[in-house]
Design goal:
CATH topology of the largest domain in chain A: D-Maltodextrin-Binding Protein, domain 2
Strand content of chain A: 15-25%
Strand content of chain B: under 5%
Distance between the termini of chain B: 34 Å
Structural class of chain B: mainly alpha
Radius of gyration of chain A: 24 Å
Largest interface: A-B, 91 and 74 residues
Number of strands of chain B: 0
CATH superfamily of one domain in chain B: MetI-like
CATH architecture of the largest domain in chain A: 3-Layer(aba) Sandwich
Distance between the termini of chain A: 72 Å
Order of helices and strands of chain B: HHHHHHHHHHHHHHHHHHHHHHHHHHH
Largest sheet of chain A: 6 strands, mixed
CATH topology of one domain in chain B: MetI-like fold
CATH superfamily of the largest domain in chain A: Periplasmic binding protein-like II
Oligomer: heterodimer
Number of helices of chain B: 27
CATH class of the largest domain in chain A: Alpha Beta
CATH architecture of one domain in chain B: Orthogonal Bundle
Shape of chain B: globular
Chain lengths: ~375, ~575
């Protein structure tokens, strides 16, 4: 009897010990890796310097949806000693967090694609205005800097690039109007703006180019009548292209170029005008002054030669495929030249507030 | 007990209440100018949101009924017949339960979509695409998800139902069908419970709503709610208005359940309960039963598994349709790249294993206490607990997440020095709160069969309270507890909406890392990572079940298998 008791007790203890060990391992691994983002410098010498200086600095909280953000925050900490905590998420959840916590925000800077979200945050007074890093912008950069300096562009992608199947399409269309012709009936695909963030700037860009919301709606209605196929986001639209469901895909340039790197049958061209989609950083207006100063340093680091190298190597088949906004920095070799492309910027303060209405119209009339 | 109620109030009631309050008083949380308004509730009842709510109501009802219609026969076949391979079925049923709902949805989509695997294999069946990518497919997937809940509830009830009732009916000349008509009403509490949890789980499901349903242009309430939050700028008050409707919807099955069971006794377990005799299946009945059960598992596990694995084995977005390990190579290259920069993609997996283990341990303790309260005689307190738990099942994870931000990131909290938002502590609390209601429901079947005499007997023989519980009660419920632990563990391991809103910056869990790949155009790599994560999760399940088999005394396993389902 006593023996059975002891065995039962031992087994219970073994189970409990196992659970506790697992829990402790978990806690230790999570705490060690949670600091990993901020304390893994490139070399031991810089590590020592960074640790020493980090003690006197506040932690910079970075909200980012960029593919190279993890590499960037680590390089920044290694270079400056400023500890960083990275909230790496999709744009949607990041904006939800910012809006839900706006009474008591705890982010330092936000780094996502698309200027309309920044314009929306700026209109609510959530962004620090008036900061511009001391850099030499190229023409893409100059087009993307807002007048009140409430956010800073770090690169641009284009919306939308035309990706096509080179084996089937020997002479791709060269104007937006040609997409409405019988030649391309049932062969064009694009993304759904309510699921794909970069697609609203594309639709707004078309409306801007064609002369207004009404003209844009007419264009997309005709495109639908010509057999436009909608997939949720860049990935599935490109998948439809490679599988042969469609022959022309209107997707974000970085996604198209990334796909072309892996599939040599994909060709890329730009129809004029093509809309700029800036990646940008905004600083929290309510963050402590010390954190705001660190956020400004972060922006300067991102736009420095070292920072641009990290951006171009951090996500080589994804977000690294951007067009730089700084003079003297060349895009990666895989990016098509913009020499013959006409680019346009849309005013995010005009188009941003119309996003929900236009997306709802698109969903009701084009997607369904 | 007061402490338990306090914890429930702080961690389930408060975040839900804060979020729901937003619908009528947005200004309270800085989300608008009105202190009191009914505009958002009105908006939730009109236009596209009203259509989505109606869709959700009928789809969830159909899914819950389908869950019972499939779960009941399988439970009966496993408990009462000599069905071949029946000892593996409880484990397979747990596997269905453990998979996140988006995985089967993506797997099915991958196969039947216009350029999917089915067409590439030369099967030109547009009617299948039409059927799956529409309301039928949505009901099918949600219904399959309800089957394990029905199976567990009915298995537990069947275990306590002795042979004497069937014998009595047969002695009086009843046919097998007539005997079944006698048994079904006796099992009414389990069936109603299965319908209620199936309905609540389906109406709150986001995985199917955001994938198959959305891509089929069939809008469901949870997706509309998500869109209200996900659009920029988000409308939290409108989302809260829809939250009210979801909570109200849960009251429907609960009210029906209460009405159906009122004033009746279903106590069937006694000292004279006779062991049920297994019916020999032969010939056509055996073939038919085996084929039916086999078909269920092919549809529930085989097809989505094939879809997900094949997606991870096709490079270049599936263009060439050649199987390759390129995505897995890319995943490890990505891991090496991240490791070189000082982190690693394996660390999110390690982290999620830890989060899952800690959360599951806390949840099972809380779930057991809640299940005991629910299993007792119905009072106002247990009625309120039942509604609170089921209502919180009906609220999608994104509501919980936003509710936690509103409740625990108020400026006053910071002034009091309580800074819980975006800490691992709050994330684990939120995981626990979101898992507890379903966990309690899974355990209630087993716990309701416990007689106080089990513990009393041990106490009478001189054992202390803890030893009496460990020796009298634990052996009977050890297997259900292990299974409930695994259920929570797997749920947390791949949980997405709460993680997105609440994870501690710098410490991304697995689901965030997968989502990061899927949303950054690395679709194949993301699927490879998802397959790898599910494989790791299932390995952990295997390790725990193996450990239970090795460490638990044979008696525990024998007693527990009657009510817990699942054989390692």
């Amino acid at each position: 009897m006593i023996r059975t008791n002891r065995r039962t007790g031992l087994r219970l203890m073994a189970l409990l010990a196992g659970t506790c060990a697992l829990a402790l391992t978990a806690c230790s691994s999570s705490s060690s890796s949670s600091s990993g983002a901020s304390s893994t410098p490139a070399s031991s010498a810089t590590a020592a310097a960074a640790t020493a200086s980090a003690a006197s600095k506040v932690t910079l909280v970075v909200y980012s949806a960029q593919g190279y953000d993890s590499a960037m925050t680590k390089a920044f900490t290694a270079a400056t000693g400023i500890p960083v905590k990275l909230d790496d998420n999709s744009t949607g959840p990041l904006l939800t967090q910012i809006e839900a916590s706006k009474n008591n925000p705890n982010w330092g800077l936000l780094w996502v694609d698309g200027a309309t979200a920044f314009a929306g945050l700026d209109t609510q007074g959530l962004l620090l205005k008036g900061f511009e890093p001391s850099v030499a912008w190229n023409s893409l950069g100059t087009q993307s800097v807002p007048s009140d300096k409430s956010y800073t562009p770090t690169g641009v992608t284009l919306m939308a690039a035309l990706a096509y199947n080179k084996n089937k399409v020997k002479s791709p269309p060269t104007t937006w109007q040609q997409l409405l012709s019988a030649q391309w009936k049932g062969q064009v695909g694009m993304n759904d703006p309510s699921q794909s963030g970069p697609t609203f700037p594309f639709i707004a860009g078309m409306m801007n180019y064609l002369g207004g919301v009404g003209a844009g709606e007419t264009y997309f209605t005709k495109l639908k009548a010509n057999g436009l196929i909608i997939h949720p986001t860049n990935g599935p639209t490109l998948q439809a292209l490679t599988s042969g469901q469609i022959n022309l895909a209107l997707v974000q340039s970085s996604a198209a170029i990334g796909a072309a790197l892996g599939d040599k049958s994909i060709g890329i061209s730009y129809l004029n005008p093509v809309t700029l989609l800036p990646s940008a950083i905004g600083i929290d207006a309510k963050a402590p002054a010390a954190e705001q100063a660190e956020a400004e340093k972060f922006i300067e680091f991102v736009l420095s030669a070292q920072g641009q190298k990290v951006m171009q190597s951090g996500d080589p088949t994804g977000d690294s495929l951007y067009y730089p906004v700084i003079q003297g920095v060349s895009p990666l070799a895989a990016l098509p030249s913009l020499a013959s492309a006409t680019t346009q910027s849309i005013n995010p303060y005009t188009w941003g507030p119309q996003e929900a209405t236009i997306n709802t119209w698109f969903d009701s009339n084009i997607v369904r | 007990m007061p402490l338990f109620w306090l914890l429930l109030a702080c961690f389930i009631l408060a975040p839900c209440a804060c979020f729901l309050l937003l619908a009528v008083s947005p200004r309270l949380f800085g989300q608008g100018g009105q202190w009191f308004t009914l505009t958002y509730l009105h908006q939730a009842l009109t236009g596209a949101t009203a259509v989505a709510i109606v869709n959700s109501l009928w789809v969830s009802s159909a899914a819950a009924v389908m869950g019972v219609a499939i779960g009941f026969p399988i439970a009966w076949l496993v408990a009462r017949t000599t069905l071949p391979g029946r000892r593996f079925l409880p484990g397979a049923m747990w596997l269905v339960l453990l998979l996140p709902s988006w995985l089967p949805a993506l797997g099915w989509e991958r196969i039947v979509q216009p350029d999917g695997v089915m067409y590439r294999l030369g099967l030109d069946w547009p009617w299948v695409t039409h059927a799956i990518m529409g309301p039928f497919g949505v009901v099918l997937l949600l219904g399959l998800r309800c089957v394990p809940f029905s199976y567990l509830a009915i298995t537990a009830a069947l275990a306590g139902l002795g042979q004497e009732f069937e014998d009595a009916a047969r002695v009086h000349g009843a046919s097998r069908v007539a005997a079944l008509r006698l048994i079904i009403p006796i099992l009414a509490p389990a069936i109603w419970s299965a319908l209620a949890i199936g309905f609540a789980e389906s109406i709150s499901d986001f995985g199917v709503a955001a994938t198959l349903a959305y891509n089929s242009n069939f809008s469901l309430a949870t997706y509309q709610l998500y869109a209200a939050i996900g659009n920029f700028p988000p409308s939290f008050p409108l989302a809260a208005g829809m939250g009210w409707l979801l909570v109200a919807a849960v009251a429907i099955p609960l009210a029906l359940q209460a009405r159906a069971l009122r004033g009746r006794s279903y106590a069937v377990l006694s000292g004279r309960t006779r062991l049920a005799v297994r019916r020999q299946l032969r010939g056509w009945s055996q073939a038919g039963a085996t084929a039916g059960v086999g078909l269920f598992f092919v549809v529930a596990l085989g097809v989505p598994g094939f879809g997900a694995v094949s997606a991870s084995l096709l490079a270049d977005y599936g263009g060439s349709f050649k199987l390759t390990l390129a995505n897995y190579h890319a995943l490890f290259a990505q891991t090496n790249l991240a490791a070189a920069a000082g982190g690693g993609l394996l660390s999110p997996i390690e982290r999620s294993l830890g989060y899952g283990a800690v959360t599951a341990t806390i949840t099972v303790i809380g779930g057991f206490i809640a299940a005991r309260m629910l299993a007792r005689r119905r009072t106002r307190a247990t009625g309120a607990l039942d509604f609170l738990l089921l209502a919180s099942v009906a609220l999608p994870g994104v509501v919980f997440g936003a509710g936690y931000i509103f409740a625990y990131n108020l400026p006053i909290m910071s002034r009091l020095g309580i800074n819980l938002y975006q800490t691992v502590t709050l994330l684990i609390i939120a995981y626990t709160a979101a898992s507890l209601p379903t966990n309690a429901r899974v355990l209630v079947g087993a716990v309701s069969q416990l007689q106080p005499s089990l513990k009393d007997a041990a106490r009478a023989h001189g054992a202390g309270a803890v030893i009496a519980w460990a020796r009298g009660v634990l052996p009977v419920v050890s297997r259900p507890i292990v299974m409930a632990w695994l259920f929570t563990f797997c749920g947390v391991f791949l949980e997405l909406p709460l993680s997105q809103l609440l994870y501690a910056p710098g410490s991304p869990p697995t689901s965030i890392a997968i989502e990061d790949n899927l949303s950054n155009y690395h679709f194949g790599v993301g699927m490879a990572q998802a397959v790898l994560a599910v494989a790791i999760c299932l390995t952990a399940v295997g390790v725990v079940l193996g450990g239970y088999r090795l460490l638990a005394p044979a008696g525990w396993r024998r007693i527990g298998s009657a009510i817990g389902g699942g054989r390692g």
